[in-house]
Amino acid sequence: MARRAADPDSRTDAADPTRPTGPGAVRRAGHAGFRAAHPVGLAALLVALLAGLVVSIGVAVTIGPADIPVSTVWSVVADRLGLPHAEVPLLREHIVWRLRLPRVLGAAAVGGGLAAVGAVMQTVTRNPLADPYLLGVSSGASLGAVAVLVLGFGGGVAALTGGAFAGALAAFAVVAAVAGRRAALAPTRVVLAGVAVAQLCGAATSFVIIWVADPHATQSITFWLSGSLARVDWAALAWAAPVLAAVLALVAAYARTLNAFAFGEDAAATLGVPVGRVRWLLLVATALLTAALVAVSGAVGFVGLILPHAARFLTGADHRRLLPVAVLAGAIFLVWVDTAARTLFAPRELPVGVLTALLGVPAFVVLLRRRKVRG
Amino acid sequence: MLTVTGVSWSVAARRILDDVTCAVPAGGLVGLLGPNGCGKTTLLRIVARLAAPDAGLVTVGGDDVATLSRGTLARRAALLAQHADTELDLTVGEVVLLGRTPHRGSRWSDSAADRVAAADALARVDLDGYADRRWHTLSGGERQRVQLARALAQQPLLLLLDEPTNHLDIGHQLHLLHLVRRSGITALAALHDLNLAAMFCDAVVVLAAGRVVAAGTPAEVLTPGLLADVYGVRADVVAHPVTGRPAITYHPPAP
């Protein structure tokens, strides 16, 4: 305790009327640093992002060929919620409820979900370049979903999600096997293996679609390989939403455990984390979420790569702050990118994955050059 | 506090540890010595249960480590690796708080006890006021002290140190081992520098080719004969003018 006198911060204590007393107060100057190490208050940030997401969804629904004011969007939603509202013409009701709202909500779910998947993968594989698309998991999910379609299990969302899940797990298993047993320590090898698996799955997906002479082959290939939110409906959302909620809840429960991976798996183990079980659980959970999202949107790339890194600028590396911010920011991001994808070249529509790649590849290059990526 | 009994470990048909037996009494600082590749790191990894021995028994605080949960073991033994590093942009405070991981249960936020333990640990390595500094801005010596603070925040019964003074200048080497000594926590430290081991350790264990070849106080063990046998060097051993412990000076290799 005598060392306290030499503490450079001790002079501030006398001027601080809020200073607590008692044994726990002795290190007060040190405590200050254990609270707010990041510039922005988390609560304010989350409230702002949540408000931003609600406003983004509301505004994005108004944007499109038919001019629909926000008040109409509200009336349609209020009608479904049983709240008092103004009358809306049937056609407009249809545009808002059947066409635009599921799509915008789908964009939010896919964007938020992919951001969470990317953040968890980056930590668990200790690889700053990890992303479900780059690691081939999304492509594997696409192949699995297409295989289910072709094998005649029907186009139901449940079958699609199941096939996508099997494909996602298989793809990740192949990546892990190709990259070697010490995969977690060799980021560039994992990414190279992931790119190879993604190419293979993409080629197989294209082959299957053309082989079965899908009348909309080109469109289907684009959907499964580049990602598109054009097909989202309420049935697809009804399947993806519970998976999204469950996996996000699981990941949130492991937020502190994820922090322990900062110095590697051995360090996490000596901090009391059952590393093998945690890694296995979280990788399977993120593969499941990836599969559910791919069943909604196909393989949208780079959202899982960029958004966690962008969120870390705001929150630092603590997953308790990072995960909620990344999820909300990812949701807002994809709502707007998809809105741009369907309106920039209207009446033609860009696959949303084309736009996310346009934004994501430069970010990937920056990360690759800036980080000392080992392996 | 720590007992290692008859531990053997092989990889690819090569025996790295062969029937190793040693012990660290409560409150003691024991140096683990031996040439490169003799199995020091492997022994520390087995004690920390990062590897499982092919044969033999390791107990920490009286219990076989194989029977303890990861969390229980982490509350008893903390490991300080050679050079820990991270890709992430962490503050010193966040790194030290990682040491509270095995104490937190399922709590989401840091408790007052966590913050007190972390702040206290930083003070014990003479880094008061560093909590907001960025890990990436620290020097090698500061990083090792932060990692020691993280290990102290674990409030372990036993510290495992794997060449903790590697890559540090002599001032930082002396300071780090002084801090370990001052913490009063039982410790097993793999060390390369025999003079540092002689100065700080209560006892030393010398490994060569995976076997224990000598154990005892530094004065008993660190003799010219042993240094010739184990390291293949010629050396004089005199009493240190201040501490009275062995002080070793080496001869250049014969031409």
Helical proportion of chain B, percent range: 25-40%
The overall number of domains of chain B is 1
- Corresponding CATH architecture of chain A: Orthogonal Bundle
Largest sheet of chain B: 6 strands, mixed
Beta-strand portion of chain B reads 25-35%
Q: Uncertain regions of chain B: pLDDT < 50 for 5+ in a row? A: none
List the SSEs and their pairings.
The complex is a heterodimer of chains A (375) and B (255).
Chain A: H1 10-14, H2 28-33, H3 42-62, H4 70-81, H5 90-124, H6 137-150, H7 157-179, H8 187-211, H9 217-226, H10 234-253, H11 255-259, H12 265-270, H13 275-297, H14 303-315, H15 319-343, H16 352-370
Chain B: E1 2-11, E2 14-24, E3 29-33, H1 40-47, E4 55-60, E5 63-64, H2 70-76, E6 77-80, H3 92-98, H4 112-124, H5 140-153, E7 158-162, H6 170-183, E8 186-190, H7 194-200, E9 203-208, E10 211-216, H8 218-221, H9 224-231, E11 235-239, E12 246-250
Parallel strand pairs in B: 3-8, 3-9, 6-7, 7-8
Antiparallel strand pairs in B: 1-2, 1-4, 4-5, 9-10, 11-12
What does this molecule look like?
The complex is a heterodimer of chains A (375) and B (255). Chain A is mainly α. Chain A has one domain (91-370): ABC transporter involved in vitamin B12 uptake, BtuC (Orthogonal Bundle), CATH 1.10.3470.10. Chain A is built from 16 helices and no strands. Chain A has helices at 10-14, 28-33, 42-62, 70-81, 90-124, 137-150, 157-179, 187-211, 217-226, 234-253, 255-259, 265-270, 275-297, 303-315, 319-343, 352-370. In chain A, helix 5 crosses helix 15. The longest helix of chain A is centred in the N-terminal third of the chain and has 35 residues, at 90-124. Mean pLDDT of chain A is 83; it is low at 1-33. The mean pLDDT of chain B is 93. In chain B, a hairpin with a 6-residue loop joins strand 11 (235-239) and strand 12 (246-250). Chain B has 255 residues and is α/β, with parallel strands linked by helices. Chain B has a 6-stranded mixed β-sheet with strand order 6-7-8-3-9-10, with helices on both faces. The longest helix of chain B is centred in the middle third of the chain and has 14 residues, at 140-153. Chain B has one domain (2-250): 3-Layer(aba) Sandwich (Rossmann fold), CATH 3.40.50.300. Classes of the chains: A mainly alpha (375), B alpha/beta (255). At the A-B interface, helix 2, helix 11 and helix 12 of A face helix 2, strand 6, helix 3 and helix 4 of B.
